[in-house]
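Question: what's this shape?

___
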Amino acid sequence: MHIDPYIVLGGAIVGLLVGMTGAGGGALMTPMLILLFGVAPTAAISSDLVASVVMRPIGASVHLRARTVHRRLVILMASGSVPAAVLGSYLLSRLGHARSDVREIELILGLALLAGSAAMVVRYALDRRAGGERDEQLHELTPRPFVTVLIGILGGLMVGMTSVGAGSLMVVLLLFIYPSISAKQLVGTDLTQAVPLTLAAAIGSLLFGHVEFGLTGSLILGSVPAVFLGSLLSSSVPDRYIRPVIAFVILASGLKYVGLGPVVLGWTLVVVLLLGAGFVTHELRSGRERATERSSRVLH
């Protein structure tokens, strides 16, 4: 089994971001493997899933200790996502290895990544509209079983076929259904339900023969200690500084997979960066003005 030090480093970077922000590792890990290391899409997806079986429990354990996990929601989502993940892995295997089939996988992956990127923007808009306060306690939450199971099914299919969906996409769907609960609590709940979900998807990948064990071992060596460190740091580093970077990476990967050429992709990302920089500058200026106004009211 060959261990690639560059993949170990890439896995560590993604693992650190997952631990710090709760964003789905598949949205970052799989594109990194395909775009930077030339790994075939089916092998990248399946190896990422198997590595996530080892990585995700680390983040989930941190949230369980912090009491930010709604166990009833975990059960409901897992009841839909686990069988759907196995089905997704089977559908992935049926696509085969032909060039046209690989293109189908890339298109599915691209659409999933774009949906995840849009979901993060929508999530931010919802938090802004709510004044940034999502403080309903876990014991006060009344689960909606049917819709929650449907979210699990959608996320399970997405994870089984692309390894994307257990983080950003599923979290934002839950935010629509449970708008008053804090995002941090939803991330903790989603990370916990993702443990059996990724296990089921990984079993499906092992059964259908896509996993490269050298690649998987490299990912585990890098991502596991990094996700633990990232989880420890997440209590002191606000995720608002990290999530824009993740959203940008997800967007760039999604645009690449849906078929944008290098030149068009490059200019599109330049425009997105400029718009993002302008938005961040506006937000920082507004934040300073609000802080100045609050200080003036206190003094007077």
About this structure: The chain has one domain: 5-259. Residues 2 and 214 are 5 Å apart (CA to CA).
